[in-house]
Write a structure and sequence with these properties.
The structure holds two protein chains of two kinds. Chain A is an alpha/beta fold. Chain A is 40% helix and 17% strand. Chain A contains four helices and four strands, in the order E-H-E-H-E-H-E-H. A four-stranded parallel beta sheet of chain A has the order 2-1-3-4, sandwiched between helices. In chain A, strand 1, helix 1 (18-27) and strand 2 (36-41) form a beta-alpha-beta unit. In chain A, helix 1 packs across helix 4. The longest helix of chain A is centred in the middle third of the chain and has 18 residues, at 78-95. Chain B is an alpha/beta fold. Chain B folds into two domains: 3-118 and 130-173, Rossmann fold; 182-302, no CATH class. Helix content of chain B is 22%, strand content 14%. Chain B has eight helices and nine strands. Chain B has helices spanning 15-21, 26-33, 74-86, 95-99, 111-119, 162-173, 248-251, 269-279, and strands at 3-9, 34-38, 48-49, 53-57, 62-68, 71-73, 87-93, 138-143, 153-155. Chain B has a five-stranded parallel beta sheet with strand order 2-1-5-7-9, with helices on both faces. In chain B, strands 3-4 form a two-stranded antiparallel sheet. In chain B, strand 3 (48-49) and strand 4 (53-57) form a beta hairpin. Chain B is globular. Chain A binds chain B through residues 48-50, 53, 81, 84-85, 87-88, 91-92, 95-97, 136, and chain B through 267-268, 270-272, 274-275, 278-279, 281, 284, 290-291, 301-302, 304, 306. Bound molecules: iron/sulfur cluster (SF4) (3 copies) and FE2/S2 (inorganic) cluster.
Chain lengths: 137, 313
């Protein structure tokens, strides 16, 4: 059997909710695949689409942005910016021939360690099914 | 010893070469420290020996090579490589060379669609075959210069401002470093700006932007974007006014169209513009299309053919 494809997933995690949520998943010893490379950011509103595109052009197989639930952003409207930017990212990804499913924006609060583990497991499995992302096909 | 300059135009329109002539009297100063050894668009020189050996590219050795235009045909590629071999220093001259420029809009279409469009129009009979000999073969897409050869200096602009051309050549002669402004057109724009939030949708350019909108506190005109017109200023590199003037289109009362390419060399003008609009609560679906935000920088794989529309059965 060929070795299982291990996707490289870049995650931008907001410091206040999702990163803490991820921490909780760790403290609670929840199991989830190790494919996510988390990057802590202060807020999803600071993740410029350029960063996501750069992750893809450097060979990431999937990119996730995770932040506070709507209305709970610590900078008031960072995550609403992230929503409109996510639309822009999907448009551009589609037009340069990258499956927009490789990008996802999700909300995780600091209490949702188990949701975090589930989301990562689910996303990793989907990326495994989708196969490797080819840069500039 | 004067430095030797050679120039070639690939898939280009000759505007860049005209910009060399636009230097005015500085052209005379230029010719004191430089000789132009080859530049087919401005003088009588060919890239091959027409009489004896028309098939082989032959270029004179030069210190600086100015290459305008992008790479769309096999001939363009061969010439670009020959220039690289015969010149010590290559300047990607104009936005076509640095980012693909206007001709790279063709990258939105498949090659056979392009050929079909050129050779079979509605009013003509279908061509039996497309010409195959005596015309150079097409590359799959329009490539910016640095996708195929090493480039030493990028001089964007459609065309580049004569100030920059002169300064670039002069700094090569003096062996000094050379740099262009790394700001956006907005940074140097005289428009008055009130801040974010009033505009929700963008207008088509079917009406004229207003010029000289005065109010009690500010003078000048109101930013085109804040008037609701798409202006590519925020995502376009400054410099089109040269070393002393302000942005050319803005001063002609027209929004910027983005001809100096992205602010950072690797940038994506469409991504950056859509991001800027969306983050400021402007509904991007109010624009009829957005691919044309890459009208000057569609090389480097940024513009690609859209999925073909299936013909109805
Ligand atoms: S950059 Fe502009 S002026 Fe220069 S060759 Fe291209 S289209 Fe013409
Ligand atoms: S958007 Fe256009 S008009 Fe407004 S400041 Fe920028 S360059 Fe000037
Ligand atoms: S204003 Fe914009 S489009 Fe006009 S010349 Fe300057 S960079 Fe080019
Ligand atoms: S602080 Fe968490 S999304 Fe803004």
């Amino acid at each position: 059997m060929p070795p299982r494809f291990e996707p490289v997933i870049i995650g931008f995690l907001c410091n206040w909710c999702s990163y803490t949520g991820a921490d909780l998943a760790g403290v609670a010893r929840l199991q989830y695949p190790p494919n996510l490379r988390p990057i802590r950011v202060m807020c999803t509103g600071m993740v410029h689409p350029d960063l996501v595109m750069e992750a893809f052009s450097q060979g990431a197989d999937g990119v996730m942005i995770m932040g506070c639930h709507p209305g709970e952003c610590h900078y008031l409207e960072g995550n609403t910016k992230a929503v409109v930017r996510a639309e822009v990212i999907s448009i551009i990804l589609r037009d340069i021939g990258v499956d927009p499913c490789r990008f996802e924006l999700k909300w995780i609060s600091s209490a949702e360690g188990s949701v975090f583990a589930e989301l990562i497991t689910d996303f990793t499995m989907r990326m495994q099914k989708l196969g490797p992302h080819k840069v500039n096909p | 010893m004067p430095i030797k300059i050679a120039g070639e135009s690939l898939n280009a329109c000759s505007g860049c070469e005209i910009s060399i002539l636009d230097m005015g009297e500085r052209l005379l100063t230029l010719l004191e420290f430089a000789t132009i050894v080859h530049l087919p668009l401005l003088m009588d020189s060919k890239h091959c020996d027409r009489k004896n050996n028309p098939q082989t590219v032959k270029l004179p050795k030069a210190d600086v090579g100015l290459i305008s235009g992008n790479i769309k045909t096999k001939e363009n590629l061969e010439l670009a490589q020959a220039m690289r071999d015969s010149c010590d220093f290559i300047i990607a001259f104009g936005t076509c060379a640095t980012h693909g420029g206007i001709p790279a809009l063709a990258n939105s279409y498949q090659s056979d669609d392009l050929l079909g469009h050129c050779f079979n129009t509605v009013g003509t009979d279908k061509a039996d075959s497309l010409p195959s000999d005596a015309v150079p073969g097409l590359m799959d897409v329009c490539y910016a210069l640095d996708e195929h050869i090493r480039v030493d200096v990028c001089l964007p602009g459609c065309p580049p401002h004569p100030d920059h051309i002169f300064r670039a050549l002069q700094s090569i002669e003096k062996k000094e470093s050379f740099s262009l402004p790394e700001k956006s057109v907005c940074d140097n724009c005289p428009a008055s700006r009130d801040g974010k939030g009033q505009v929700k949708t963008l207008k088509r350019a079917l009406e004229l932007p207003q010029w000289r909108v005065f109010d009690d506190t500010k003078e000048g005109f109101k930013c085109f974007l804040e008037q609701g017109f798409l202006c590519m200023g925020p995502v376009t590199r400054d410099g089109c006014g040269g070393d002393t003037d302000q942005a050319r289109c803005i001063m002609a009362q027209v929004p910027c169209r983005g001809c100096y390419g992205p602010v950072k060399k690797e940038g994506n003008q469409r991504l950056a513009m859509l991001n800027a609009l969306a983050s400021n609560d402007i509904d991007i679906s109010s624009l009829p299309e957005t691919l044309s935000m890459l009208r000057f920088s569609g090389g480097h794989g940024l513009l690609r053919p859209l999925p073909r529309i299936k013909e109805s059965e």
